[in-house]
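Inverse folding, one chain.
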């Protein structure tokens, strides 16, 4: 829909700048649909997008975001494009994305911001349609989850300042509204983009604790009490 296209344009304008600065060998996007690729212009060579179900004509592999067929600590960049908004197992999906991300790798999370006009509109709309049936997880709650998974938040950006409407005349000004909101850095953008890094767990050496011995408890070696007679 025209409204959906305005959302997509606002998200891509921000994420393209961030993804262009992230390098590595493997980049994985987990999202709503394979047609909306945020990683197509990434400098990373190997790009992976999974489909949740088989579709004729699609070349993408099939896998669930909550059960990724990927080895541990191997992906350089993971992009979650509204994946947390539209899953019944939010924590499990986030743990899976963290599991496959290598230490020092980057994760980008795109989600709907409940503290916005879009969040208010969600309270008034039917929860049977997209995007109003999404979870709209707050940035504060998501930041707490990231800390528990040893993911350090590096940056946070907001976008989608145009109002949630399907009126064609209003949508024609969406790009202007977006530029103005980004320039002023208004705090009520409809979507947020969080960039975090998987921390490298430090290796703590195990030092044995030697118990100090009292001087009185030290006995004289038996060899010193033996006199050797040489004939």
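Residues assigned per position:
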């Amino acid at each position: 829909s025209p409204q959906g296209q305005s959302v997509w344009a606002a998200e891509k304008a921000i994420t393209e700048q961030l993804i262009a600065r992230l390098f590595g060998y493997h980049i994985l996007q987990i999202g709503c649909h394979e047609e909306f690729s945020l990683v197509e212009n990434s400098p990373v060579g190997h790009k992976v997008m999974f489909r949740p179900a088989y579709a004729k004509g699609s070349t993408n592999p099939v896998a669930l975001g909550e059960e990724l067929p990927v080895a541990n600590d191997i992906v350089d960049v993971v992009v979650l494009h509204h994946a947390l908004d539209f899953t019944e197992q939010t924590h499990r999906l986030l743990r899976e994305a963290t599991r496959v991300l290598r230490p020092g790798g980057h994760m980008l999370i795109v989600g709907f911001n409940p503290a916005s006009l879009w969040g208010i509109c969600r309270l008034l709309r039917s929860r049977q349609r997209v995007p109003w049936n999404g979870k709209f997880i707050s940035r504060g709650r998501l930041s707490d989850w990231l800390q528990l998974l040893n993911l350090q938040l590096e940056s946070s950006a907001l976008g989608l300042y145009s109002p949630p409407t399907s009126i064609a005349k209003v949508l024609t000004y969406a790009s202007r509204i977006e530029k103005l909101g980004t320039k002023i850095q208004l705090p009520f953008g409809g979507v947020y983009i969080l960039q975090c890094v998987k921390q490298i767990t430090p290796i703590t050496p195990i030092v044995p604790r030697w118990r100090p011995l009292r001087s009185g408890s030290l006995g004289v070696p038996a060899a010193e009490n033996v006199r050797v007679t040489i004939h």
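The CA atoms of residues 50 and 60 lie 6 Å apart. The longest helix spans residues 2-19.
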